[in-house]
């Protein structure tokens, strides 16, 4: 039997807790980076990215969607995705690469590349913590270069800036209550949005990106 999704109030608490934990992990990653502990700094920054992805899964749990899908396997099980390292990384990377920044090429192609990239990112996180052995070679955590850790920490900062501003404030629960009071209108809007996404993914993501940035011109698109 599938375990139930937490109630809305708990989901908001989880979102905020995940984002605050990501902030703490990122702060620790910076300390390690400054101390020259590059591999572990990289691993902690990846864990911070996973916590951001976990908050994204909670956001999806808050709102009824025409097609319920939490993970990269079209998984409708909230808890399976909650436990999946690659799914959580994909949501965080998708937020960064498709909505916060401009995607590199068509949206569907960019999303496909992300799905492949996050699998490698999860393995790189493990590489920052453990000794491994492959094809006759001993792989050490120190093999992760400093520029890679710096870039990852910068990416985590970019996503956190947006996510914390959106969710870590007192008014968020009141806004959620307003959405729930007009759930019929919200469902109709989401159904229309899904149709636009299917018809023209690039245009739909561009409009969402403008709204995320607070660009008033999005309404005219």
Supply database-style keywords.
9 helices, two-stranded antiparallel ribbon, 2 strands, 221 residues, disordered C terminus, mainly alpha
Question: How would you describe the overall organization of this protein?
Answer:
This protein has 221 residues and is mainly alpha-helical. The chain has one domain (8-215). The protein has helices at residues 8-34, 38-62, 78-82, 85-100, 107-127, 146-167, 172-181, 183-199, 201-213, and strands at residues 132-134, 137-139. A two-stranded antiparallel ribbon has the order 1-2. A hairpin with a 2-residue loop joins strand 1 and strand 2. Helix 2 (38-62) packs across helix 4 (85-100) and helix 2 (38-62) packs parallel to helix 6. Residues 215-221 have low confidence and may be disordered.
Please summarize what this structure is.
The protein has 221 residues and is mainly α.
Question: What is this structure's SSE topology?
Answer:
Elements: H1 8-34, H2 38-62, H3 78-82, H4 85-100, H5 107-127, E1 132-134, E2 137-139, H6 146-167, H7 172-181, H8 183-199, H9 201-213
Helix pairs in contact: 1-2, 1-6, 2-4, 2-5, 2-6, 4-5, 4-6, 8-9
């Amino acid at each position: 039997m599938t375990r139930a999704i937490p109630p809305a109030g708990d989901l908001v608490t989880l979102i905020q807790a995940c984002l605050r934990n990501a902030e703490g992990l990122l702060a620790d990653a910076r300390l390690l980076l400054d101390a020259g502990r590059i591999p572990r700094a990289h691993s902690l920054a990846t864990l911070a990215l996973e916590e951001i992805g976990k908050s994204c899964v909670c956001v999806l749990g808050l709102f009824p969607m025409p097609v319920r899908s939490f993970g990269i396997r079209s998984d409708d099980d909230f808890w399976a995705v909650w436990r999946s390292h690659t799914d959580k990384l994909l949501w965080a990377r998708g937020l960064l690469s498709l909505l916060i920044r401009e995607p590199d090429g068509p949206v569907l192609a960019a999303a496909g590349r992300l799905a492949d990239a996050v699998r490698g990112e999860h393995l790189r996180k493990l590489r920052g913590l453990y000794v491994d052995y492959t094809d006759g070679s001993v792989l050490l955590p120190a093999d992760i270069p400093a520029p890679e850790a710096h870039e990852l920490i910068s990416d985590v900062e970019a996503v956190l800036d947006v996510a914390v501003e959106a969710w870590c404030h007192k008014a968020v629960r009141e806004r959620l209550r307003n959405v729930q009071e007009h759930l019929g209108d919200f469902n109709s809007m989401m159904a229309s949005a899904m149709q636009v996404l299917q018809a023209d993914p690039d245009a739909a993501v561009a409009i969402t990106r403008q709204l995320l940035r607070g660009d008033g011109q999005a309404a005219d698109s």
